[in-house]
Amino acid sequence: EVVKLTGLDRVMVYRFDDDDSGWVFAETKRDGLAPFLDLHYPAMDVPKPAREIYKKIWLRPLPDALAEPVDLVPLTNPDTGKLLDMTYCFLRGASKMYTDYLVNMRVRMSLTMAIQRDDRLWGLIACHNYEPKVVPYQVRAACEFLAQVASLQIKSAEEREHGAYKDRLEKSYDALL
Q1: Residue 14 Cα distances to 52, 60, 123, angstroms
Q2: Is pLDDT of 57 > 80?
Q3: What is the DSSP letter of 4?
């Protein structure tokens, strides 16, 4: 659905394990691209500061990994003297480490959506495009909605699985008795 909505080259579902390592367990991509499906990544692949941001926002677009960053002036709030909090800003730049990572993979554009389970970052829907692309507001809003729905579906599916497992345990216990 995300590919149909955005037209991007690759969409992956990246799930975090308890140790914050990641696993690409679902993927759709355009023909000719090497698969990332079933690849595993260490926890440092998505650093803790990035994971903390994804706990606060549903969507993070980066239209062009090679775009020159522009300084925000002033960097501090003149009233408080504190650094400006850019967490919720659409035009917030990405870290050099992340843009270098994308460029090394020849990816020019990324769109990342958070999948949250209660107060925990369960995973990410990570999208790549091999050309720069600005995703229009209406499409970003729809993607944000899809991330929220996916989060609810994950919670519901895990609760169903837990209930089914509990039922099997109870049946086994009854059979033993």
Answers
A1: 16, 15, 5
A2: yes
A3: H
